[in-house]
Amino acid sequence: MRTKDPVLSDTPVGTLASLKKLGLKETQWGSCSRRELDYDGTIKNVGCLAWPDCNLPEKGTDKGFIHVGLRVTRKLSTGRMDTLHMTCNCEDVAERTAAYEASGMVVQVVARQGEKIKIRGSKNRDEDIPSEGKRRFVVEQLIDWEIPRRLQPDENPQMLDQALAESIARETVEQKKSDLVEAANNQGRLRGK
Fold first, then answer.
1. Nearest 5°: phi and psi at 166?
2. Contact 32, 16 (CB under 8 A)
3. In the structure, what pLDDT confidence band is assigned to residue 17 with cuts at 50, 70 and 90?
């Protein structure tokens, strides 16, 4: 694949709309969208490499580019069930699901960013015990776990810096073009006199 501009990230950095809002080129930055090539094989849109395998309902919408909560359940050799919860980037869900399921595990998307789910966790509790002093106890319990939000480009300091740099570069090029046109026009006026 060829590009007119260097691809700066094959991995999505936001939705396609959020890239365009900041003036970032879809030919350089991955987004929650389908990869598109021009007739000559040049990248028109970097998109997301996981697009063909993604089955999340947010795919390709302004609600795409999210974190999700996964629940992975497996049966132990003792017959007991073991459950693991994790946060996952949307572009990694299909690949992780396939890998876990190939190992005989069951994978479920159980929450979207900003949502809370109950998981088993632990909290520390300090108590003063007479004649022993302060002791720390670890208490296992169900806790609320919130799936963290994924920053869109207009919330991400590095992407804001990139957008500013690209904007300044575009303005500089436009100013140079304008100066060249003005100089050529002035030169033409001088010849005409």
1. -65, -35
2. yes
3. very high
